[in-house]
Amino acid sequence: MHMPRRRTLVAGAAGAVAAGRLPFAPAHAAPAGATGAAGAAGAAGAGRTERMYLSGVDSDHPVDWDFLCTAGRNSGVWGSIPVPSHWEFHGFGTYTYGWNLVPEEKGRYRHRFVPPADWRGRRVFLVFEGSMTDTEAWVNGQSAGPVHRGGFYRFRHEVTDMLRPGEENLLEVAVSKDSADDSVNEAERMSDYWIFGGIYRPVHLEAVPVQHIERIAVDARADGSLRVDAYVSGTGAADRLTARVTDHEGRPVGEPFDAPLTPGTTPVTLRADIPAPLPWTAETPHLYGLEVELRADGEVVHRVDERFGFRTVEVRPGDGVYVNGVKVVFKGANRHTIWPTSGRATSARISRTDILLMKEMNMNAVRMSHYPPDTHFLDLCDELGLYVIDELAGWQAFYDEEAGAPLVAETVTRDVNHPSIVFWANGNEGGWNPALDDHFGRYDPQGRPVIHPWANFRGINTDHYESYESTRRILTEGSDIFMSTEFLHGLYDGGAGTGLDDYWRLMGHEPLAAGGFLWALLDEGVVRDDRDGAIDVAGNAAPDGILGPYREKEASFYTIKEIWSPVQLAEPGRFAAGLPTDFDGRIWLANRYQFTGTESCGFSWRLLDFATPDDGRAGHTVSAEGEAVAPEIAPGAEGVLRLPLPSRWRRADALSLTATDPEGRELHTWTWTVASAADHARRLVSTGPGPAARAAEGDGELVLSAGGTEVRFDTATGLLVGAARDGAEFRLGGGPLPTTGEAVLERLEHGREGASYVVRAAYSGVLRAAKWKLRPSGWLQLDYHYHLTGEHDFFGVCFDHPEADVTGVTWLGRGPYRVWKNRLRGVQPDVWAKEYNDTATGADLWEYPEFKGYHADVCWASLHTAAGRLTVVAEEDGMFLRLFTPRVGPDPMHTEVPFPRGDLSFLDAIPAMGTKFDEPATLGPASGPTPATGDYRRTLHFGFARG
């Protein structure tokens, strides 16, 4: 039997949208094809709940209502506003970021509508999905019910007696941005996030029979045991409840089951055992339908439909968190519900986008920080597969019991049947009221665990922002499960990916580790119409995301994707410098899935030949490609993948391997170089014949010329002063200077070396020697030697070059994003290109990848300048290229990274980045300074080309 349709109307709207294209609709989702009131979808079915939307179904499809704001912008005058929305985004009131109350700011709404005439004789409820914050409603001048306090919760009023079916009705709503209850303000509005006002989630009417099923609560275990608590409201002749389970195509599963109804008894519990159900996990999100009917003498009085999954959650003290009897490790992020042009008024489209981005990063979990999300987000977590921590609001302060108890009830009764929810969170960071802990279980037959984020509560330590060393101690010396609900605070470009590799060696693998949740998924940016459309992230308070406001991907996105890939290299060190010389096509893999064997995955390989600077393009060509037979590696085990490579594979520049999940989604692509930097240098640097290089000396400069290139040196310092090609000036100079220490010229010599001309400079200090050679082709070679010991943030040599002259860069190296010492994963070898930008990560512009910063394993780089193309080719592997010094946002705390003097640097070590709260040195072995070990020698080649 197929899931039934529910008649859904949208008053005054042209149309509606499905809640994320679900395979079958849950009871609280708007179905596909819902139409305006003038064209209602179908006739009323016997016993069906009917819904009429008074607002739009989401922020993508709003309906205009009359509106007046009492304070702030455009106050005191009636106009109109789309609903659902926040009034700040439509020119009213005041933008507020946490901690600031505006008690005088209120919104007044009016909306006229005509409910169906055939609703006479039915009970009708007015339902608000979310309104900030104190909300009172009137229907046709009569109060619909008491003021609702709490901005993130579904609430309802029965309006049967005041409604006039078939006639025009008037709904009036008053919304106060702040609450009259101090504990509500302290819990959810005096908080570290944007505070908005208004009806920001949908408003609808629900019509049901006089005697009806008010709600159901499902406990479906992985072994197929099923309990359904059905809450019946109203009086009537109904004497039995019947139920059946259906699969995703609506076909019956198991036998129908039922229970008698005793008048006045609620809930009625129905039980069944479903044979061999497909269990729900984040890796295998199998869903079923449940049809529950209230019957009188065999006839259906009322019917509700729900979607659910068979799954069991256990916390085993001193051991771990288990789903369906398997120990799980949560790889997640904290997500605020927000969009830059609509605030917390969102849509299924936005929810789907965010979940797919999390899945792309190989996350399996999400924490709802710090309030319950939209139902369409939870629907899609069920469908697409994410474990969820659903959270009662409370940020370092809590609801008192009188205010909080009904909000717990509203949260749990709304969300109880989502298999994706594995924990309830009672507030955040001291925002929990212990008096509310047991309230969650009153409405949840599954008895999900309740946690206190930031505390060690009931055997689960969720502490926030532990250092690497304290994390190690908790996991190796403690006795409780560790599941940090916030770690590696991602202010600007810090946190999230930086330090994660070290942290995850502990948090992903130690016996007491249950994983953790990065802070945070998104930069909370708000488009300010009172600031000419600028995006406001509240200084350094809200730019904490792995993604930008419009979901722009920062570098950490790809770092997380690689580190959290469920298919990993079992011997990563073996491939750290490219393919090993004894590589024979075999790769040891580790399966980090919890339920999925690698035989369900896909593996494909490609041989790559990289573009050159003269090709005028980025990327590569593919010389050969193929599929590899997926090995059978069980979860938690290791095994061998064999690549059927052709005999000529060593002629390629690189080998790439892509692993995909059972749905064909890319888990990760590894690229390993075959050709070395020296191989590329031999191809690119012309040493061919031509007129011999010449030299001239005067006015304190030594000038060399050959092949249309002219280079100038300061005879007092031995440093490069500048270069020109066919008369065009390349303003590269001031080097090589050591990034650390001094270089005092002791001796300068020059003379011919065959057809080339050579300049030798001997120094005292850190820099010991520099040898320049201008070849007849015009290529300029630099051999340098420096000596350094001790620990340093960076070391190498640097040059000056005006940033204003640069328009872009093309390079062969790991990219396309910049790196830090503690964020080297997530970038792959290739030829990359990017135009110049001046992005301050997370603070403004949001143009990614950022142009400026440190770049890893650079073999060559072509800087596009006003004079032409300046190409630098490295002779040795493992060089970092520094491109200028990036801007940072205001008050960067520990996320401002040191940079050498000058503008361009060629480095053997680079610094690590910290997080908002932690210095780099506290984030693990990869985050400290680098020990210098003595002598360093490198060879660079400089080419200058017009155009």
Automatic annotation (TrEMBL):
Xref: InterPro entries: Bact_Beta-galactosidase, Beta-gal/glucu_dom_sf, Gal_mutarotase_sf_dom, Galactose-bd-like_sf, GH, GH-type_carb-bd, Glyco_hydro_2, Glyco_hydro_2_cat
Enzymatic class: hydrolase
Positions of the Glycoside hydrolase family 2 immunoglobulin-like beta-sandwich domain: 212-311
Keyword annotations of the record: Glycosidase, Hydrolase, Signal
Entry EC no(s): 3.2.1.23
Reactions catalysed, as given in the entry: Hydrolysis of terminal non-reducing beta-D-galactose residues in beta-D-galactosides
Highest taxon above the source species: Bacteria
GO molecular function per UniProt: hydrolase activity
Signal sequence extent: 1-29
The Glycosyl hydrolases family 2 sugar binding domain, residue ranges: 80-209
Residue span(s) of domain Glycoside hydrolase family 2 catalytic: 319-530
Pfam families xref list: Glyco_hydro_2, Glyco_hydro_2_C, Glyco_hydro_2_N
Similarity comment: Belongs to the glycosyl hydrolase 2 family.
Protein's UniProt name: beta-galactosidase
